[in-house]
Amino acid sequence: MGKLSVTLCMALLLVSGFAHASDNALISEANAALSKKDYSTAVSKFSVVAQHGNAAAQFNMGVFYINGQGVPRDEKQAYEWFGKSAAQGHARALQVLQKAAAKGNEIAKSELSKLQQPPSPQIQAPAQSPQASSATGEGASLLTEANAALAQKDYVTAFPKFLTLAQQGDAMAQYNVGALYLNGLGIQKDEKQAYDWFAKSAAQGNARAIDIMQSAAKAKEEAQAKAEAEEQAKAKAQAAADARAAAQAKAKEDKKSPSSARTGKSALSDFSLGLSGGVTGKMEGINNSPSFGLLAGYRFNSSFSMEAAYNLLYRNANADSFISATYPGTTATFDLTAISVAGQYRYGLSNNLSLLGNLGFHSSSFKVKSSGSGSTTGNSSGLVLGAKVQYDLNRNIGIRGGFDTYSQSGGMTGRITEVGVAVVSRF
After folding, report:
1. Which of 166, 224, 254, 427 would you label with 203, given CA atoms 20 to 30 Å apart?
2. Predicted confidence band at 26 (pLDDT cuts at 50, 70, 90)?
3. Smallest Cα–Cα separation from 344: which of 356, 336, 333?
4. pLDDT-wise least confident of 159-173, 275-289, 388-402
5. If you compute the radius of gyration of the chain from its CA atoms, what whole number of angstroms results?
6. What's the topology of domain 271-426?
7. Which region among 3-12, 71-80, 194-203, 251-260 has the lowest average model confidence (pLDDT)?
8. Three-class DSSP category at 178
9. Which of 127-136, 208-217, 276-285 is least confident?
10. Which among 339, 331, 291, 295 has a CA at the least distance from the CA of 315?
């Protein structure tokens, strides 16, 4: 892997001089050696300051190791130093790690993953903000005491000291106060306070604080999107449940009310059988007479069906006047048998009441028995037209009433109208 293009920082420009008493002299000597490109001397000075927690010095140690300047080239050491620097909020160190990780460097990825752990307070290097860098010796003492308490995990002592530094504008102290609030260390847990301090630290360029704020914003967006998706899924599930409930209610209603409605599939079965009885209308020469028949049908859908009927009309009807024109003084009876096939249309008026209309074809045979001339037979055919009203008692039994008119041609002419009732059973 080629060298990563990283340049050194002048640590003296980035830190104040009150973390360790000896650091001021070391920083001056390190910067002087750096300006002369005496990397071996610079490394020996910066390494001490870096071990004291100075983020800029830690960044420079990473550069020395990545470029092999003053020390043998060592990527592992380099990225570990960049990781320590980035953990303290050093923006350039974080950028170096991100670029290396994007190119597939596993060590950089590992260091970045450490940074992505939940925020925790860090041993703090000297202040990096202009406000804090002008702090007095009292501020130096506070920082020393805060770091010592933090190292011993004495968060109750560390918190007020970091808080004072944070209020003076120290970016890393602001980060630490946020971490202490977020984890409830040394102070009651308070996420709002935590993110307020992270925001202040991020506004001053602290890399970890910036990363935390970006992660929080992303998490908020994801949570909102998840909540919206759950709400949509809940609405769809409710709509599906409502549809199922409506279908079940309709099925229950159909079971109670078997007749066909105006639209849709009826609860009635497809096949039917029936018995009919009635009286026939007067035909010239033949008086009114009772009739009866059988019928069978098949329903294609809720509106259309086909029915076949076998009817006996004018059974033993008085036909004296009909035959006396040919055979005066002769008495006679008249029988007519009709087989018909008709299409039927159903129109639902209510759950139990329907109008029926049928149109079809019939073939009939008749027989006249005369006391004077014997028997005469013949055949006729024609259209059959009818209208009825049907009331369904339950899902299997219905009663209908109405009329059918048979037109005759062939061996007999005229029309015969049958008015009657029928009981229909569906199965």
Report:
1. 224
2. confident
3. 356
4. 275-289
5. 52
6. Porin (2.40.160)
7. 3-12
8. helix
9. 127-136
10. 291
Write down the domain spans for the chain: 11-203, 271-426
385 Cβ contact partners less than 8 Å away, ≥ 6 residues apart: 358, 359, 404, 405, 407
pLDDT at 321: 60
Residue (of 380, 362, 371, 257) closest to 311 by Cα position: 362
Contact predicate 78/105, CB 8 Å: no
Residue-level pLDDT at 21:
47
The pTM assigned to this predicted structure is 0.37
Q: Output the CA–CA distances (angstroms, integers) from residue 295 to 222, 255, 360, 370, 424, in the order listed.
A: 69, 25, 14, 31, 8
If one counts every other C-beta atom within 10 angstroms of the C-beta of residue 346, the result is 22
Provide the sign of the torsion angle of the four alpha carbons 157, 163, 166, 168, taken in this order. Answer: negative
DSSP per residue, 369-392: EETTTEEEEEEEEEEEEEEEEEEE
Provide, for the chain, the percentages of residues in helix, strand and coil under a 3-state DSSP scheme, each rounded to the nearest 5.
45, 30, 30
> How many helices and strands, by DSSP H and E, does the chain display?
13, 8
Do residues 170 and 186 lie in contact, with contact meaning Cβ atoms separated by under 8 Å? no
Helix (H, G, I), strand (E, B), or coil: what is residue 10?
coil
